[in-house]
Amino acid sequence: MKEQAKVSMQVDVTFSPHELQGRDPGGKSVVVIDTLRATSTMITAFENGCAAFIPVPTVEEARKIARENPEYLLAGERRAVPLEGFHLGNSPRDYCARNVKGKVVVMTTTNGTRTLAGAGGGEEVLIGAFLNLTAVAEHLGRKGRDVLIACAGEKGFFCLEDSVCAGALIAAIEGTGAYLSKTDGANAAKLLYEYYVDNIYGMLLGCDWGQYLEKIGLGRDIRICAQIDSSRLVPVCRKGKIVVER
Ligand code: MLT
User: Fold this and answer.
1) Rounded to 10 degrees, what is the CA torsion of 203, 205, 206, 209?
2) How far, in Å, CA of 13 to CA of 163, rounded?
3) Closest ligand 1 atom, CA of 218?
4) Whole-angstrom Cα distance, residue 122 to residue 1?
5) Ligand 1 contact, 37 CB (< 6 A)
6) Distance between CA atoms of residues 182 and 117, nearest Å
7) If you ran DSSP here, which 8-state letter would residue 4 be given?
8) 94 lines ligand 1 (CB under 6 A)
9) Alpha carbons 103 and 85: distance in angstroms, whole number
10) What does the buried/exposed string (b/e) look like for 214-226 if buried means 16 or more CB atoms within 10 Å of the residue's CB?
11) pLDDT tens across 68-125, in order?
12) pLDDT of 4 higher than 60
């Protein structure tokens, strides 16, 4: 029997929105990861029937869009704390069906929506987290394009949880049978993942942001964000709106 040719793709990882600015996403699939908590929260919301997210970098923009569209929910955080007058924060627990089914959510978060704002210019922008690793990997394997994984990081710097999640996604893409040529960033992310592979929850608890969330009483969110492959959804950002094809 003739052996099927392996899909060959290049995978790159950026560790902060600043680093992303220097990359050309042309022709690539871009995956934005803010695993604690923005992208995990979006996936949870879609699982509960949310119609769409409109991600915006600033609080002012979010308030303006919500004023012009009073049927939208206004959501987000700064320092993980919900904002004055907003309907929802950034905890996945806020996004139950009762709150978000059929709703469009305008969202601003410190790092996640800011990274999304700089992630355009490629063929597609996907939303990734530990929750939907295999679904995103299979999607990428089917498309066969080069991949740029954009970690949200923390305030412009490297953060451990997004980098380990990027490495987990790389391993999952390889698991689909694709042959990957990896940049230094991609190799580093995969090595980090291999170090933490047996204790992803422990890594999420121990990283800087995980410790902070725990300290301010949001530790339960970390458990939710650690549920590897709990979702098959692959949200995609098109013309400023994040949706899932149902
Ligand atoms: C962000 O976008 O910086 C985060 O998702 C922060 C958070 O945990 O709310």
Assistant:
1) 110
2) 8
3) 8
4) 37
5) yes
6) 25
7) P
8) no
9) 18
10) beeebeebbebbb
11) 999 999 999 999 999 999 999 999 999 999 999 999 999 999 999 999 999 999 999 9
12) no
